């Protein structure tokens, strides 16, 4: 621990330091945070089976017709579990993007990457990594969804600009 932080802990009783620009106090966490989790996907298993086949699947409420991507097992509006599986169009328009240079530890093995949001032609918005040069990507440009394998060996979808 550096001397400056030790002085602040002694002064405030906590690991807080003033922000250099605003002077507002901010907490400096001194512990490494590692999170591992397990989430049941049994009720949305068709989504993963579809990815293996190169399909992009969503759920649609049988009562109100709302479309959900990523898929949900229940409709929060109708409070029903009566859902249909529908295949989504893989075409859409790019809405926004950002390049991540400072990556979380779980993606530290990746070069800087681009995360984008696109609106698919059949309605839902999708957040995914954007393939290709982000300096050539512009909001409004056409993109398509491709299913590919990540470095870790599992399937995932990404957005690819359409030339």
From TrEMBL:
Pfam families: OB_ChsH2_C, zf-ChsH2. Residues 48-84 form the ChsH2 rubredoxin-like zinc ribbon domain. It comes from the Archaea. Residues 85-146 form the ChsH2 C-terminal OB-fold domain. InterPro entries: ChsH2_C (IPR002878), ChsH2_Znr (IPR022002), NA-bd_OB-fold (IPR012340), Thioester_dehydratase-like (IPR052513). This is Putative nucleic-acid-binding protein containing a Zn-ribbon. It comes from Archaeoglobus sulfaticallidus PM70-1.
